[in-house]
Amino acid sequence: MKAPVPIAGRLAAIVIVAALPLLLIAAPDQGGGGGMQGVGGGGMPPGTTISASTDPPLAIPRGTGAISGVVTDGATGRPLAGAAVSVFMQTTAPAAPFVGQHVTDSKGRFVFTDLGVAGYRVSVRRFGYIDAEYGNAGGGGRATISLATAEWFQKADVALSKTGALTGTVVDERGDPVVGVLVMAAREFFIAGRAHLAAGSSVRTDDRGAYRIAGLDPAQYAVCVPSVQATVPSAVALDATDIAGDSADGYRIVLGRGPMPDPRAGASFVYPTTCAPGGPSQGKPAAIEISARGDVGAVDVRLQPVRAFRVSGHVDGERGTGTLLRLVPSWAQDLGFAGDAATTSLESDGRFTFVNVPAGDYDLVATTSVGQFQAGQTMGPGGLPVARPPGFRMSSSGSQSLPSANTLSFTTINSSGAGLWGRSMVTVRDRDVTDAMLQLHRGVRLSGRLQFESSTGQVPPVAVLAADPANGEAALGMPTFAVQNPENGGEFSIDGLMAGSYLLRLRASAVGWAIKTVTAGGRDYLDAPFDASTGRDLEGVVVTMIDRLATISGSVREPGGGRTNSAAVIIFPVNPQGWASYGLFPTRLRNVSVTTSGAFEIARLQAGEYYVSAVDASEARGWQDPRWLEQMAGTATRVTVGWGETRSVDLTKGASR
Predict the structure, then answer these.
(1) What are the sequence ranges of the domains in the chain?
(2) Sheet harboring 394-401: ordered strands across?
(3) 443-546 adopts what CATH topology?
(4) Which of 429, 418, 549 is nearest to 496 (CA)?
(5) Which of 399, 393, 423, 422 has the alpha carbon at shortest distance from 412?
(6) Which of 13, 53, 317, 400 could form a disulfide with 440, with the two C-beta atoms 3.0–4.6 Å apart?
């Protein structure tokens, strides 16, 4: 509504609390709403930063507008004092300009004044509650508040939901408490149209064997006690913190990588990784549901010792002394080191031995780069649920937020090894395995050159290309190559691709650019993956980048014709093949929330045919499930947009056109 008198006088009765330091709350991602970003469209994935920019900071307009509201407990409706409320200006820039921050008063109220004509987002954070934004209804949606001249938006109310917790105890086979062991809450996400597990928040049991994993979003979890049997040849140097026990045949067992049973005469016993509900995990663990209503208790884990065996063998092909070898159950491939059943190092003559391996079916993996999905905070060394294996010498690591969820990230840990990889199957039943074999390979190289279609005659100063695993397999990693000063040549070479399918993506660089075409051998690979399973290098790839990007904009109304600000707009490709296997950073699936005027804009798009659909804000993340997209395709509006074009479409929330 329009303010007939200066707003400053009308707000005198509202207590304004002094702003907190800016560093308390970081700027939210710039997905336009719902935390999703089209990387190939020149945008930045959430959580990624550019080290330097030549663009001047955006000026925040000042005026006589205002935004006010009340923060409440979503379950009880009572006002929440002490909530930190931040306002950011909504822009298409890589980082949202920070406007200010206040703390709610005893009645949960907040107000921001002196605001100019612009779009704004309101973000709220309070201990014990899930972070939220105005317009968020639990599904990742949010709304932009569009202020006109001297407008006071009075209902920027935000209801916060409490975080949940998982509690229980860890006991051994006698029912005695197991003290000081790591307990991890693994969480399932849809990534690249498929369900994947992410290593989640972790804690250690106390002196009663009890644990409490708090701060959890409503979702499904598996509670696991990881147990990794780490073996090293005697010649491998250990870290100062590692403690090794004696073993025969020149191998040592590194202690402290999981709970240990009492020694038993005549045979070797171990505690395998055990999850609740269930037990020792040979398959994907069952899920425990945390609702928005509270905690889940009595999630107890009972450890049972099992017979353990040796797995030994040799490698063929190239050799790299000290190369890390891992035995990983198939269900735990996305958990990184937290999913390992056993590890060892390769000897100079190509032999290897794992000690204390529980019975099961495993992938025998050799790699110098380990990827994992991570959700929430961990208590393990180095921020990982479990420590890096002995013998693994880390050379670099990196983490980047994923658009599947605000709390989900993809972490890669690289070693200084010989760049070799291999994978085979090993089955352990009731005896030692003595003839395991693994073929080691050099990673495949994907190389070519960049060319540009520029409307200004300028090219970006740097372009970072990435090989994005099409099926979302964390184990494949994401090898990258930064082309510096591409106007001087633009050649690239991405090394280290393992057997699998990869999409070529433009990462957090070259803002305002997109990949227009990817060709090799007369084939189009813009939306089709490269197959690195052949082991042959992929050469002669030509990547064309363009700075004339597409935009789809419009407005959303309620079915009755009224204006809505509780809606999300989803776009997805018309071709169903694009609803899955699109990698970790999809370029043609996007979501935004509407503004308080009912408007939306999805910018920096690749040209193509899209379905556009308006849904309730609670369904903002429905795009992750291909089955949901299949249902929406029947009622969505079809839009074709070319390079540099803007298409406008008016939508009705939840209705077909």
Answers:
(1) 7-127+129-160, 165-441, 443-546, 550-652
(2) 369-375, 408-415, 394-401
(3) Immunoglobulin-like (2.60.40)
(4) 418
(5) 399
(6) 317
The DSSP line for 32-83 is SSTT---GGGT---TT---S---SPPPPPPEEEEEEEEEEEETTT--B-TT-
- Six-digit token pair at 442? 């050099």
SS3 619: helix
Placement of tokens 């190092």 in the chain: 345
Q: For residues 153 and 143, give the distance between their C-alpha atoms in angstroms, rounded to a whole number.
A: 13
pLDDT for 464-483, tens place per residue? 999 999 999 999 999 999 99
Q: Which residues contact 612 (CB under 8 A, 6 or more apart)?
A: 552, 554, 569, 570, 571, 636, 637, 638, 639, 649, 651
Whether the CB-CB separation of 402 and 191 falls below 8 Å is answered with yes
Is the preceding omega at residue 259 within 30 degrees of 0, hence cis? no
Report the C-alpha gap between 158 and 132 in whole angstroms: 7
Looking up tokens 């959700």, which residue turns up? 375
Nearest-angstrom CA–CA distance, 655 and 183: 45
Residue 516 — left, alpha, or beta (φ > 0 → left; ψ -120 to 50 → alpha)? alpha
Question: How would you write 388-423 as a 3-class SS string?
Answer: CCCCCCEEEEEEEECCCCCCEEEEEEEECCCCEEEE
Q: Which two tokens stand for residue 194?
A: 């498929």
Give me the amino acid identity at 506. L
CB atoms within 10 A of CB 118: 19
pLDDT at 26: 34
Centre a 10 Å sphere on the Cβ of residue 249 and count the other Cβ atoms it contains: 10
177, HSE (Cβ side, Cα atoms, 13 Å): 12
User: What whole-number distance in Å separates Cα of residue 486 and Cα of residue 483?
Assistant: 6
Which one is predicted more confidently, 654 or 20? 654
CA distances from 405 to 27, 34, 47, 476, 585 (A): 16, 9, 11, 20, 12
Q: Which CATH class is domain 7-127+129-160?
A: mainly beta
pLDDT in tens, 491-533: 999 998 999 999 999 987 788 999 999 999 999 999 999 999 9
- Residue 29's identity, in one-letter code, is D
Does the pLDDT at position 617 exceed 90?
A: no
Residues in Cβ contact with 8 at an 8 Å cutoff, skipping those fewer than 6 apart: 64, 113
What homologous superfamily does CATH list for 550-652?
Carboxypeptidase-like, regulatory domain (2.60.40.1120)
Q: Please state, in angstroms and rounded to a whole number, the distance separating the CA atoms of residues 600 and 590.
A: 12
Q: Which residue has the tokens 């949606």?
A: 141
3-class SS of residue 628: helix
* Backbone dihedral angles phi then psi of residue 334, each to the nearest 5 degrees: -90, 0
Tokens of 144: 């932009």
Using CA atoms of 44, 45, 47, 48 in order, give the dihedral in degrees to the nearest 10: -50
In sequence order, the 6+-apart residues with CB closer than 8 A to the CB of 21 are: none
- Domains 443-546 and 550-652 agree in fold: yes
Q: Could you tell me which of 340, 333, 343, 341 has the C-alpha nearest to residue 373?
A: 333
